[in-house]
Design brief:
The complex is a heterodimer of chains A (339) and B (119).
Chain A (H helix, E strand, L loop, with lengths): L9 H10 L17 H5 L22 H15 L2 E7 L4 H24 L12 E5 L1 H13 L37 H7 L14 E6 L4 H11 L20 H8 L1 E8 L2 E3 L1 H8 L4 H58 L1
Antiparallel strand pairs in A: 1-3, 1-4, 2-3, 4-5
Chain B lengths: L5 E8 L7 H9 L4 H4 L1 E6 L9 E6 L7 H10 L9 E5 H26 L3
Parallel strand pairs in B: 1-2
Antiparallel strand pairs in B: 1-3, 3-4
Helix pairs in contact in B: 1-4
Classes of the chains: A alpha+beta (339), B alpha+beta (119).
Chain lengths: 339, 119
């Protein structure tokens, strides 16, 4: 006997199969340990949605470009003084020679400073000349100078159980509330702006970066890299024969100083040389300032004293006058009984 | 760019002007040993200067020869004398492509002459 209900057609059967839940997960009967006191009183540790060292990035972080941008941005933030050079097809031997001469000259400056009694800071070791990718540097400069996020995200450790889970720096899936260098906000805020250093940023460029504004080191570096007779004299052949090597000389001919960025301001070649020509470095400037302020102090004391002195003289004069009067009156009084 | 026939390059530009890009790029197109085969002089203008940037060139017919060879050639045949054509290129109008085109145009003439005279 055939079944009374005919089986559903194939099409309907396939639809029905789709709607059915795919597979019911199996549950095993397990005995859970009882929750400890700490687990009950404290909330469970919030889940970190990303490692703190790797926030989600607008630009793909695995590209060399992105990492160079981060590197340049941190370089610009940490160097108050940097010089821009154009390098026209220097050979590697020439670069080696130039770097060697620069390092020896800067070491000499450091030693001279220590010998003069200043504390050893080893600024010279941090001064490096490096070739950079021009376009990426331009982008990094704009981000550093124009992108100032108003509120930095709270520095909380998402893996710390003490952190309340509501304050975890959560991010939108499109990364719209992030503020780091590679973020979308940084890109949007800076991509249409013009930096005053922009016209310099074309063609092959090299940067000479200083970890501190030190006119003495700048002077030494300029006298090696772009000597000017008189102001920044080149080392003599006897004092520094290495500088007169053929490789170094041909390299220096192809190196062209274009400008500088000193504490966020853009300087041309003349102003850069002026910075390098500050006598005695920052200590010299401070000495001049102190001398000036001392002069001002003496002037102020004099001025203040004058008021006091004049008051004193006035009062003293008045006192003498009154005394004289009193004497006169008393003298008259004395005279009267005689008369 | 054919740089074999250039004997002298002098450029003037203000690096803070966007139009100076051409002159700077021209300098970067010269080969690494350019300073041995030609005289290169560069003058930088101060930042406020509005003077135009330009590239000035001088040519010779003899490519890559030392002075001693040049004297020998001169005594042998007068046609090897430097043609000494001077070019003053307005870098602001031409752009780097235009400057290279001008240089190559003259250099090709010189190289053809060189081939025809059997060198």
């Amino acid at each position: 006997m055939p079944p009374r209900i005919s089986p559903p057609s194939k099409a309907i059967a396939s639809i029905l199969r789709c709607k059915r839940p795919v597979r019911i997960q199996r549950h095993y009967a397990t005995i859970l340990p009882a929750a400890s006191h700490e687990q009950i009183t404290k909330s469970s540790p919030p889940i970190a949605r990303y490692p703190t060292t790797q926030p989600p990035s607008y630009k793909p972080p695995e590209f060399r470009k992105s990492q160079l941008l981060r590197q340049y941005a941190s370089l610009i933030r940490t160097t108050p003084l940097m010089l821009l050079f154009q390098h026209n097809n220097l050979r590697s031997t020439e670069w080696v020679g130039i770097r060697r001469e620069l390092a020896t000259a800067l070491r000499k400056v450091d030693e001279a400073r220590v010998a003069a009694g200043y504390p050893a800071e080893n600024v010279g070791e941090g001064i490096k000349i490096q070739i950079i990718q021009t376009g990426i540097l331009a982008s990094a400069l704009r981000i550093v100078d124009f992108y100032k996020p108003e509120s930095a995200p709270p520095a909380l450790d998402p893996t710390d159980p003490a952190t309340p889970s509501m304050t975890i720096p959560s991010f939108n899936p499109d990364g719209s509330n992030l503020t780091h260098v590679l973020s979308k906000a940084a890109h949007a805020a800076t991509s249409k702006k013009n930096h005053p250093l922009d016209p310099l940023l074309s063609g092959p460029l090299a940067l000479l970066t200083f970890p501190a504004v030190s006119p003495q080191h700048l002077k030494a570096a300029l006298s090696i890299l772009s000597p000017v007779p008189g102001q920044f004299p080149a080392p003599t052949r006897r004092a520094n024969p290495g500088w007169h090597d053929l490789a170094v000389q041909t390299g220096l001919q192809k190196l062209l100083l274009l400008g500088a960025r000193v504490e966020g301001k853009v300087f041309d070649v003349e102003r850069t040389k002026w910075v390098g020509s500050i006598e005695g470095g920052l200590e010299g400037l401070r000495g001049q300032l102190v001398a000036m302020l001392q002069g001002v102090g003496a002037g102020v004391t004099n001025t203040l004293e004058i008021a006091g002195k004049s008051l004193y003289f006035t009062v003293e004069g008045r006192r003498i006058m009154l005394e004289d009067k009193a004497k006169g009156v008393s003298g008259e009084k004395v005279e009267e009984p005689k008369a | 760019m054919i740089t074999r026939f250039i004997t002298e390059v002098s450029t003037v530009f203000n690096p803070f002007s966007p139009k100076a890009k051409t002159a700077r790029l021209f300098l970067s197109f010269l080969p690494p040993n350019a300073r041995q085969t030609m005289k290169v002089s560069t003058k930088l203008l101060p930042r406020v200067s509005k003077d135009p940037s330009f590239v000035q060139l001088k040519f010779s017919t003899n490519s890559y020869i030392s002075d001693q060879q040049r004297i020998m050639y001169k005594s042998a045949d007068d046609s090897f004398l430097e043609d000494g054509k001077e070019m003053k290129l307005d870098a602001e109008k031409l752009g780097i492509k235009g400057v290279i085109e001008e240089v190559d145009r003259h250099s090709r003439i010189l190289s053809r002459q060189e081939e025809l005279t059997g060198n």
